[in-house]
Amino acid sequence: MAAIKQLWVKFCVSILYLISLLPFWALYLLSDVIYVILFYLVRYRRQVVHNNLVNSFPEKSLAEISTIEKQYYHYLGDLLVETLKMITISEKSLRKRMQPTNPELVNHYFAQGRSIIAAAGHYCNWELAILGFSLLTTEKRVIVYKPLSNAWVNDYVNQVRARYGAIMVAMKQTLRTFVSYRNDLTFSVLVSDQTPVRHEINYVTTFLNQPTPVFLGIEKLAKMIDAVVIFYKIERVKRGYYRFTMVPLIEQPKQTAEHEITEAHVRFLEQIIRDKPQYWLWSHRRWKYKPEEINA
Fold first, then answer.
1. Could you tell me the CATH number of the domain that includes residue 284?
2. Fewer CB under 10 Å: which end of the chain, C or N?
3. Over the chain, what is the mean pLDDT?
C-alpha cells in the first residue's frame, strides 16, 4: 500500500513539473480558473477565511470583508501557479520577477562580521521570495522549515527551495545546526507566523486583535549567535512581479529585553497585513486554539 501511495505521489509531482514548464501567461489563465473553482465551486475554506477576516478587522464592514475575500482568492490562484513555477524557473526570470531593493545591506552586515536572521510571513509569494534570497550572497544561506508529513514530498519541496544553494534545516535541528556554523557568516530566513502545537506554546501575544501563540525561535537564535534581525518585506508590484526589502529591526539582540525581538517582528508583519490584507494566507487556521486552550 505504501509503495502504491509513493507511486501516486511521484506521478502527481511529474504532472506538476510539466505544468511548471508553461509560460507565465498560460499559468495565469490557469490561475483564473483556479479562482472560480476555489471560491465558487469547492468553496475552499470559505468559512475559515471569513471568520479570520471578521475577527482580525472588527472595524470593517461586511462589504469590505467580502471584497478582501474575493481579492484573496484571486491572489491564492496566482500564488499556487507561481509556486509551481519555482520548479523550473530560470535564474534570469527569478531575478527579474523577485527584485531586492537594498541588496547591499547583506554585505554591510557581513563586513562587520555579523550574521543575519530574517523574519518572514506567509505574505505575498513567500516561497518565491525565499528562492530569490538565495541569490543575495554566496555565504551560507539557511532556510528553517517545518517538515511536511509525507517524507518524499518533503524532500522534493526542499530540493526546489534549495535550487540556488540554500541549506534546508528542519525546525527541530535549528540550534544544533547553528552551533556547528558558529564560526561562519550565515543569512537565515524563518517564517514567523507558524502556529506552535499546543504543548510547545511558550508565549502568547495579541496579533490582529486576537490572542495568538508565536514561536520564540527567532529571538532565541538571534541572541545565541548575536545576529542582526531584519524583516523580509515582500511587496507585489504587479501580477508575477515582486520586490523585497530587508528592513533592520534589531541590531544588538543581546541588549534586548525578553520578547522584545518577538514583538518587533510580529508588529511589523501585522502592519504589512493591515496595509494590504489580501496578500496574507487567510485560509491558514492560524487561530485554531481558543483562548482558554492557550492558557490551560
1. 3.40.1130
2. N
3. 93
